[in-house]
Each structure stands twice: as structure tokens, then as C-alpha cells.
Write a structure and sequence with these properties.
The complex is a heterodimer. Chain A is α+β, with helices and mostly antiparallel strands. Chain A has helices at 16-25, 50-57; strands at 4-10, 30-34, 37-43, 45-49, 70-74, 76-79, 83-87. The chains are: A alpha+beta, B mainly alpha.
């Protein structure tokens, strides 16, 4: 059975472009809406791409800024200038 | 004993305003930018026709020759509305303040040779008058324009020009130890020095342009892309030993050009792509104003750098930029 890579973000104006970018870039992602938060689950891997967020945000964005809206995550983290990736691959 | 904390997820009845939902094609959460921009300007039910221009309504698409089916197509890629614009500019202004403190603490301008100071006064400071004229133009484009998508960034741009005029003025005040004599001398140069007269005539001619989109093209592709780029981008060599402090103090202008260019390019590109007629009109306007700006920039480049080649470099860059927006020059 596939392991689930997951990220939980605040559900606010700052996080919305990130959520939209995740939905666009990760086919098969499952969305769980909670009050004030949104949990996004996907088998094996989940990625946030800088370019996708910037396209929605209209300004430069560093993947480190995700910390401002991050509640929780599951998976091994691969953080780069261009992406923020959670996966169970080694 | 176990305590179960229950949460209830309340779905809002609406995600956004009705008029925004119609734009987005469904009731989806909208960004602040969308809610502060889309269909904000009044379109109907004006009570009285303005007496100063009775042939038009207050907001009237006929105030420019270009035709758009929807003036909310040219959206701002920076997604600026009041709050984001002000936050961005407040941050930029902090950098400006730091740079001024740095230059003033080390007396980088005060230590300069009087000849270099004189060159800054006659060659750089008069541009604050050009910024003031640009402020007038962008305010005019805002008040005659149609649709918040275009008019809001126009008034932001007007504010930027005022800010840049202030930065240039402060450079003058650092040079003359806060007496204002450098600014008086610079105004004298703006009014009478031969090298500035072409620039002054150009900006004064734009003041009487009634077609607001033509004015926007003249301002962004003529004044900004040729004249401002000449002074802020291609004239470093003119300032000699002052080049580095001047580059520091005018850093905002470089950042602003890169950022506002994205917006103005997008607007021109979108409106030109709407129809062949728009494209032909805008191409003609761009050609006229880039040519005029090059002509005006020639004597200024000669006075600053010894020959007019920088004016041609700036104008050619503006032409290449215009072509990249789909215009035919």
C-alpha cells in the first residue's frame, strides 16, 4: 500500500495560491477541508513548485515562505530554491 | 474518560461577491486583488453629464481610440491593490532610507569634486521635473481611463513618480547641505539649459494629449523606456566617481522600472492583441513617441556622456521591447 505524503495548511488568503498550486501540480491529490485548515494528501509524493505559486501570487515567492501557513506535514522533506517536496522515496 | 472535541465546518453561503463570481465563472474563493479590482468602476446610472465634456459620460470607453470588448482583460500581473501596493512600496522605501543613511554617514556625495557635483546638479536633478510631469500623465490616464484593472495601477504609478521625484530632490539636498540651492539651479537647467529643452518640450506636449491610452503608451514606451532608462540605466559613466553612490540612491528607480515594466508591457500587449485596429493604432503611437523620445534624448546623452549613442541604445531597446509586445514598428 502506498504511503501518504501529506501537508496541512492554514486556509487563508496567504495560503490560497499555494493550495491552488498544489492542486494543479499534483494529480490525484485528496483534499480534506477543516475549519480554518486544509489537509492535502497524495500517495507517495506531494510537491509545491515555486513557479506555480508565483504565477498565482503575482510576485516572487520563496518556498521557505510556506512556513508561515504550514500547520503539519508528513513525509521526508526535500526543500530547494524551486520546490518544497514531501515523499517517502529514498 | 475520553473527551471528544467536535468541530463543525461551516460552509459560507457565498465565497465571494456576486459580480466577482460571475467573472470567475462560479462561486469560488476570490483573491483580495480580484475583489478590489473586478468591475469596481461604475458603468451605469450616472445622474448628470459632466459639463466640461458633455460629449462623454464620466467613465466612457470612447475617451481613447482603441477599443476593448472588456477593459478588465488587461489585469495587473503584480496583483496590486491598495494594501499590496503600499506594503511593497513601504518595503522599498526602507531600502531607500538605508541607502541615504549609508551615503550621508560616509559623506559620499559631500566629498565629491565641485565639477562632479555641478554635473549631478545639471544632469541628474532636473529629472525630478520629468517625474512630476509623468505623475501628471499617469493621474490623467487614471482619471480618463476606463476600468479599475487599468486605472488603479495608473494612480499607483503616479504615486511612484512623485516618490522618485522626491528621491531625486533628496539627492539635491544632500549635495547642497539641505539649503535647496542645488534644486534651484536644477530648475534653472530644466527651464533654460539646451540639453533639457527637448525633454521638457516632449513632456509638456504629452500634457495636452486627450486620448488616455495614447498617453499611457507615450509615457511608458516613450518617457519611461527611453528617457528614464537613459538617465538611470545608460548614464552611469556620466557621474564619474559619483557613479556608485548615485546607483545606490537611485536603486528604487531600477527596481521600479523592472516591476512596473511588467505591468505596462502586459497592458500594451493585451490591448494590442485585442484587434488588428488596436495593434495598428498602438504601433503608430509607440513609433511616434519612441522616435520623439530618441530625438529629445540625443542632446541630453551628448551633454551627459559626450555623444548621442546612449540615446540610440535606449530607443532601440524600447523598440525591441515594443516589438516583443506584438507591435509593428
Amino acid at each position: 500500500m502506498a504511503q501518504i505524503a501529506s501537508i496541512t495548511l492554514l486556509h487563508n488568503d496567504d495560503a490560497r495560491p499555494i493550495i491552488e498550486a498544489i492542486l494543479a501540480d499534483n494529480p490525484g491529490v485528496r483534499v480534506l477541508n477543516m475549519p480554518g485548515a486544509v489537509k492535502l494528501d497524495r500517495d507517495d509524493e506531494l510537491v509545491v513548485n515555486r513557479a506555480s505559486v508565483e504565477a498565482r501570487l503575482g510576485r516572487e515567492w520563496s518556498p521557505q515562505e510556506i512556513q508561515l501557513v504550514l500547520i503539519s506535514m508528513a513525509g521526508n522533506l526535500d526543500e530547494d530554491d524551486d520546490w518544497f517536496k514531501l515523499s517517502w522515496k529514498h | 474518560m475520553t473527551v471528544q472535541i467536535k468541530t463543525i465546518d461551516l460552509e459560507p453561503k457565498r465565497q465571494t461577491f456576486g459580480h466577482i463570481a460571475r467573472r470567475l465563472g462560479g462561486d469560488k474563493p476570490a483573491t483580495r486583488y480580484q475583489e478590489a479590482t473586478l468591475d469596481l468602476q461604475a458603468t451605469d446610472n450616472f445622474h448628470y453629464k459632466p459639463q466640461w465634456e458633455p460629449e462623454f459620460w464620466h467613465y466612457d470607453t470612447r475617451k481613447t481610440a482603441v477599443v476593448m470588448e472588456d477593459w478588465y482583460k488587461p489585469l495587473d500581473p503584480r496583483q496590486f491593490y491598495y494594501a499590496t501596493y503600499n506594503i511593497a512600496r513601504a518595503n522599498a522605501n526602507q531600502a531607500v532610507e538605508r541607502n541615504f543613511t549609508f551615503v550621508e554617514d560616509r559623506d559620499l556625495l559631500g566629498k565629491l569634486d565641485p565639477a562632479v557635483k555641478a554635473k549631478l546638479i545639471s544632469g541628474l536633478l532636473p529629472i525630478r521635473h520629468l517625474h512630476w510631469g509623468s505623475n501628471m500623465n499617469m493621474s490623467e490616464a487614471c482619471q480618463r481611463g476606463y476600468g479599475t484593472a487599468v486605472t488603479a495601477p495608473c494612480i499607483f504609478s503616479a504615486g511612484d513618480h512623485l516618490g522618485m521625484a522626491q528621491i531625486v530632490s533628496r539627492i539635491g539636498l544632500v549635495l547642497d547641505e539641505q539649503t535647496g540651492t542645488a534644486l534651484d539651479a536644477a530648475k534653472e537647467a530644466w527651464l533654460n539649459a539646451a540639453e533639457w529643452q527637448g525633454v521638457r518640450k516632449l513632456i509638456e506636449d504629452t500634457f495636452v494629449e486627450r486620448d488616455w491610452f495614447k498617453l499611457l503608451v507615450a509615457q511608458t514606451l516613450g518617457v519611461n523606456a527611453v528617457l528614464l532608462d537613459l538617465v538611470y540605466k545608460h548614464a552611469d559613466a556620466a557621474w564619474g566617481p559619483a557613479a556608485v553612490p548615485v546607483a545606490m540612491l537611485t536603486e528604487f528607480m531600477a527596481d521600479w522600472r523592472a516591476e512596473e515594466g511588467k505591468w505596462s508591457d502586459h497592458v500594451v500587449k493585451t490591448v494590442a492583441a485585442e484587434s488588428e485596429a488596436n495593434k495598428a493604432l498602438i504601433s503608430e503611437w509607440a513609433k511616434t513617441w519612441i522616435d520623439r523620445a530618441e530625438e529629445a534624448a540625443g542632446p541630453l546623452a551628448t551633454a551627459l556622456l559626450g555623444d548621442a549613442s546612449a540615446a540610440k541604445t535606449a530607443a532601440d531597446a524600447a523598440r525591441a521591447r515594443a516589438r516583443s509586445l506584438g507591435l509593428t514598428l
